[in-house]
Specification:
This protein has 232 residues and is of the alpha/beta class. Helix content is 20%, strand content 26%. The chain has six helices and 13 strands. A hairpin with a 2-residue loop joins strand 6 and strand 7 (142-148). Belongs to the 3-oxoacid CoA-transferase subunit A family. Pfam families: CoA_trans.
């Protein structure tokens, strides 16, 4: 990787500098648009005591769920438990610290972090356990709670196409949390299905500008279905 060329040749190089105890932002929603190979590399590295911020924690045996198997995640900041029995088990036993956050609030926490906004007010969660210990202010007769933005030491992101400069396009619903996570990491790593020459991507189609991206790598993906339902 040199200058504006963000390409790296291995997943080990892509996650160079990831250490125990760091905060990791991960794109994806369920198993849609998850950076599955970067997650597998984290497992291979054995990085531990991670705080992971993601909509959910994959499923048993795939996605972020594989990091639960080796107890590599210390704290999970997420919107829901999802189709993951091990997540539920570790949550209920107290083995895994979990901060459940409303989905829109979680998205805005990442967006604000990437935009350099330290905190924001939202009505979501007022009057529930979500609001406990948080500042409350009234605007136009309605109470709002203060939520702090989120940033991370690393952000791992799944894109569709990128150029050498790190400009990224996401495909359909696989966009989800990925562009938000990409802006909020001190080091942002994007794995994509295809890397093209600079100038091949239509500027109006780019979702994440390369200024936010530090490393890109081209990979092969399983794209597993989270829950298959068949007609009887």
């Amino acid at each position: 990787m040199a200058g504006f060329d963000k390409r790296v040749n291995s997943y080990a190089e892509a996650l160079e500098g990831l250490k125990d105890g760091m905060t990791l932002l991960a794109g994806g929603f369920g198993l849609c648009g998850i950076p599955e190979n970067l997650i597998a590399e984290i497992r291979r590295r054995g990085t531990r005591d991670l705080t992971v911020v993601s909509n959910n924690c994959g499923v048993d045996g795939f996605g972020l769920g594989i990091l639960l198997e080796d107890r590599q995640i210390r704290k999970m900041i997420a919107s829901y438990v999802g189709e993951n029995a091990l997540f539920e088990q570790q949550l209920l036993s107290g083995e895994l610290e979990v901060e459940l956050t409303p989905q829109g609030t979680l998205a805005e926490k990442m967006r604000a972090g990437g935009a350099g906004i330290p905190a924001f007010y939202t009505a979501t969660g007022y009057g529930t356990g979500i609001a406990e210990g948080k500042e409350v202010r009234e605007f136009n007769g309605r109470p709002y709670i203060l939520e702090q933005a989120i940033t991370g030491d690393f952000a791992i992101v799944k894109g569709w196409k990128a150029d050498h400069f790190g400009n990224v396009i996401y495909r359909h619903t696989a966009q989800n949390f990925n562009p938000l996570a990409a802006t909020a990491g001190k080091i942002t790593v994007v794995e994509v299905e295809e890397i093209v020459e600079p100038g091949e991507l239509e500027p109006s189609q780019i979702h994440t500008p390369g200024i936010y991206v530090d490393r890109i790598i081209c990979g092969q993906f399983e794209k597993r279905i989270e829950k298959r339902t068949l007609r009887g």
